[in-house]
Amino acid sequence: MLAARVGTLKYAIREVAAKAREVEARGKKIINLNIGDPLKFDFQVPTSFVEGVRKHLGKGNYSASEGVGELRSAVAEWEGKKGVAVDAKNIYMSNGVSEAVFGLFGVLLNPGDEIIVPSPVYPIYEAYSRFFGATPVFYDGINPSVEAIQALIGPKTKAIVIINPNNPTGLIYDEGFLRGVTELGPLVIADEIYDLMNFGKCPVNMGKLTSENLVVLNGFSKTFLAPGYRVGYAYFMGADKVEGAFLKYCQSRLCANTPVQWGAIEAIKEGGSWIKPTNKKLEKRRNIAYKGLKKLGLEVEKPEGAFYVFPKLPVSDDKKFVLDLIEREGVVLVHGSGFARAGHFRMVFLPPEEILKEAIEKIGRFMNG
Ligand SMILES: Cc1ncc(COP(=O)(O)O)c(C=O)c1O
């Protein structure tokens, strides 16, 4: 009765939550390290953003499909401060990056097309590719090389996806690699939602490296600490056909949330004073998570941005590992296979230090038990 494509909609991060709820209902204490939502821990939406949205709640009108003009200009300025020269007219507001990916893939991918994505990958890039009948072709996102990606390009390739900093690894890619990718030929889709969340090494924004054949995705869920506000954006550089098609998609879904767009203008005006303290807090937690997991004997790359760590497991059945860990210790991780990279798990290092330490101790006890 249903469309066959329903089977492509998998989202492991929320799937493990169902198991956690079941175990919690039996009275076990749960530590949720599965969802990348800072507000589940001791982070708050910046006051300027909250007050901005409050101030504009009366604006219940549909806004322009491309987004509120003043916000598009503010985003252009915000990107400009990072060194990206993007014109406001090429920026399109969406209900989060997720919606932008859905619309973009919808207008880009035909059944049978291929799209080159990292492994591991944030799940929607695999799910939405398959939803539209395309095939994700994976490159090694932990040790990527331009040559390896080049070898995957074929007549059916529609685009190359870069997630920088990466979810789920927290790794930041070098400028040389990024530049090389822009020179390969296919459209580059760069998800930079974590660009300002980093601990020393700064990611280079793709829009600084090229103004051709590029779509950049960003938003207010992570660096602006407002994932539930559902506002993001896509901007296009030298990709007029795709941009025109994306505008049609935007028109068909009317607009992004209007009061939140107005609120976002206030948050941008405030200038991001919360970003440095947030990164400081996260860096400490990154250190605890990284050192703690290493001490358990796990092979793990040191995250340089975002708030995830993605260790390798000594067992291959990562889903069983994650489900058994929930059952026995109440610690909720996500299996690497949910990110198209089996034999790993992803842990969020957002919680306060004591909780992180407790979780790591429990993981250790489970591994030794
Ligand atoms: C790499 C990446 N892109 C996009 C999203 C979703 O962003 P949004 O909340 O703007 O839909 C996430 C959320 O975790 C993410 O990690």
Any key phrases for this structure?
single chain, alpha/beta, Aspartate Aminotransferase, domain 1, Aspartate Aminotransferase, domain 2, 12 strands
Q: What gross morphology would you assign?
A: globular
Give the oligomeric state.
Answer: single chain
H/E series, N to C? HEHHEHEHEHEHEEEHHHEHEEEH
Supply the number of helical segments: 12
Q: Quick one: biggest sheet?
A: 7 strands, mixed
Rounded to an integer in angstroms, the radius of gyration calculated over CA atoms is: 20 Å
Q: How many E strands?
A: 12
Helical residues, percent = 25-40%
Set out the fold topology.
Layout: H1 12-25, E1 31-32, H2 47-55, H3 69-81, E2 91-94, H4 96-108, E3 114-119, H5 123-131, E4 135-140, H6 146-150, E5 157-163, H7 175-182, E6 187-191, E7 214-219, E8 232-237, H8 240-252, H9 258-270, H10 275-295, E9 308-309, H11 318-329, E10 331-332, E11 334-335, E12 345-348, H12 353-368
Parallel strand pairs: 1-10, 3-4, 3-5, 5-6, 6-7
Antiparallel strand pairs: 2-8, 7-8, 9-12, 11-12
Helix pairs in contact: 1-11, 2-9, 3-9, 4-5, 4-8, 10-12
Residues 36, 96-98, 122, 163, 167, 191, 193, 219, 221, 227, 232 line the site of pyridoxal-5'-phosphate.
